[in-house]
Design brief:
With 508 residues, this protein is of the alpha/beta class. The protein is 30% helix and 25% strand. The protein has 3 domains: 311 residues, Rossmann fold; 48 residues, no CATH class; 72 residues, GMP Synthetase, Chain A, domain 3, CATH 3.30.300.30. The strands form 5 sheets. The chain has an 8-stranded mixed sheet. It has a 7-stranded mixed sheet with strand order 7-6-5-3-4-8-9, with helices on both faces. Strands 16-17-18-19-20 form a 5-stranded antiparallel sheet, with helices on one face. Helix 9 links the parallel strand 10 and strand 11. Helix 3 crosses helix 4, helix 5 packs across helix 6 and helix 8 crosses helix 9. The chain contains 16 helices and 24 strands.
Length: 508
């Protein structure tokens, strides 16, 4: 019997919500492929891989949304999510939005200290995690962090052998209850909260559906992706850039989203070919390494590569993309502040980025304005536009006196040092924000690295060293590296810090 697809619900605002976009695609082609798990999912989570049509995904979203509503989570409350790049992540986001909830995106490598801090900052009412990711017992991490967040009332989990107190969601999906809450959602209200690291510390950054859609449209239009595209995403959507470039872009294209939990090049190649994908979304340095290894040459259906740069200062010096049938689009990410894209020219070189308003796509003079790039008087790059959450980055007034209070601004200063070429007028991004080290998709304050090192034995050093691929890499030195690793684990810090003290022989 054909499954019933829930009709799209009109939102309270003119703009659709992200769930509205999904519901429209489900109504148009319910039997088409919507979501596909990584082929090696069993190794990652112990669960079998799934392929879901839009109708099947819609039924699952309704079942999860009904579970969240039955748990007493009121619309507008925050539900935290820390999951691998599998279909459960996407389904949980859609279900939360259908239930009118705000999703707090928690990076996968965050451990007890960071998780507890984030949960308490946003007053999360619920937490969704997995029994395990790779070899890590994430269910235990989730339960311990939730125990120290006084606002948490419910902890949900996917997978088997969940600890007591963690409500399993797999039986909810299997039961197939589609009695989703009948809500009229406002696209102007918050859909997510992500977390940025600034010189002042950790910052919670809320974003509306409208803001997320603006970011996704920038990626979709600049890269020239067709409607109904078959996308493979190798980025975990635990940040604004990752989410906008993968799940939001998929919702806008109305095609299929094939997931890859980074990073297994052989598994990626096999699944990309088997699913006949036409677009690869991946960290830019990883995509360039795949190209150099000639792996991408064996993918006959590949037409578009979208590369995410979390170190945008490295784009101009990156290798040219090979000329051919595959286009490459650079997506410049500036923490959680915003992004912009630039599709490379036919010669494969990065294109010049000019200050001022920019459209999407950039090379179409008739396109709508996607945002604006600003050079500030202090030599840094700032962003303005519908995707930029100005209020989140606005300084707290130090005085109620309007004569001494800081003037209101309509842009966000990213802190990235930049200058303008006198001959071409193009912007050259030269350095990351002062006091911040970016290690892959994670940012740390130099001050925090020093403070954590001081909590270890005397003479211990923890620092960030330049790295060609990740921007920086963490390195540590202690009289007893094994003991330093154990101490950092006990403090609840993530593996990037603990593995900084790996022995040199182990690193080799």
């Amino acid at each position: 019997m054909q499954q019933r697809v829930k009709p799209p619900i009109a939102s309270a605002s003119v703009s659709p919500t992200l769930d509205d976009l999904f519901a429209r695609s489900a109504a148009r082609h319910p039997d088409a492929l919507a979501l596909c798990d990584p082929a090696n999912k069993h190794r990652i989570t112990g669960q079998p891989a799934q392929r879901l049509s839009y109708a099947e995904a819609d039924r699952t979203v309704s079942a999860l949304a009904a579970q969240f509503a039955a748990a007493g989570l009121p619309a507008g409350s925050v539900i935290a999510v820390q999951l691998p790049n599998t279909v459960e992540y996407t389904l949980t986001l859609l279900a939360a939005w259908r239930a009118g909830l705000i999703v707090a995106l928690l990076p996968q490598l965050w451990r007890h200290a960071e998780l507890t801090d984030a949960l308490n900052r946003v007053g999360a009412r619920a937490f969704v995690g997995a029994s395990r990711i790779e070899i890590v017992d994430h269910a235990d991490l989730v339960m311990n962090a939730a125990a120290e967040a006084f606002s948490i009332r419910h902890v949900f989990g996917f997978g088997t052998s969940l600890p007591e107190g963690m409500t399993p969601l797999d039986p909810v999906i299997a039961a197939g209850n589609d009695a989703a809450p009948d809500l009229v959602c406002d696209a102007r209200k918050a859909a997510i909260v992500s977390f940025d690291v600034t010189p002042d510390g950790l910052l919670a950054v809320p974003r509306s559906h409208v803001s997320l859609i603006a970011g996704g449209l920038t990626v979709l239009l600049e890269s020239g992706l067709p409607q109904g595209a078959r996308l493979m995403s190798a980025v975990i959507p635990s940040s604004f850039g990752g989410l906008a470039s993968s799940i939001v872009t998929w919702l806008l294209s109305g095609g299929a989203l094939v997931l890859h939990h980074p990073f297994d090049p052989q598994a990626l190649e096999t699944q990309f070919r088997d699913e006949a994908c036409d677009t690869l979304i991946a960290p830019a340095p990883a995509a360039q390494r795949l190209s150099e290894s000639e792996l991408l040459d064996g993918l006959p259906t590949l037409r578009h590569v979208v590369g995410l740069w979390r170190t945008p200062e490295r784009v101009s010096s990156s290798a040219d993309w090979p000329a051919g049938q595959t286009s490459f689009t650079d997506i410049y990410l500036f923490g959680e502040a915003g992004l912009f894209g630039a599709r490379r020219s036919n010669d494969g070189a990065p294109v010049a980025v000019l200050p001022g308003p920019h459209g999407a796509p950039r090379n179409d003079p008739g396109s709508r304005i996607a945002g604006e790039i600003i050079l500030t008087p202090k030599g840094t790059l700032a962003l303005r536009g519908p995707m930029v959450p100005v209020n989140a980055y606005r300084p707290v007034p130090k005085s109620d006196n309007p004569l001494t209070a800081a003037p209101a601004v309509d842009h966000v200063d990213t802190g990235y040092a930049a200058r303008r070429d006198r001959l071409t007028g193009a912007i050259d991004i030269t350095a990351p924000p002062a006091g911040i080290a970016a290690v892959g998709g994670y940012r740390f304050r130099w001050h925090d690295l020093d403070q954590w090192a001081k909590r270890l034995a005397a003479g211990t050093m923890l620092t960030a060293l330049p790295d060609q691929i990740n921007g920086y890499r963490l390195a540590g030195r202690a009289s007893d590296n094994a003991r330093a690793r154990e101490a950092l684990v006990e403090l609840g810090l993530n593996p990037l810090m603990t593995e900084a003290f790996r022995d040199r022989k182990q690193a080799d």
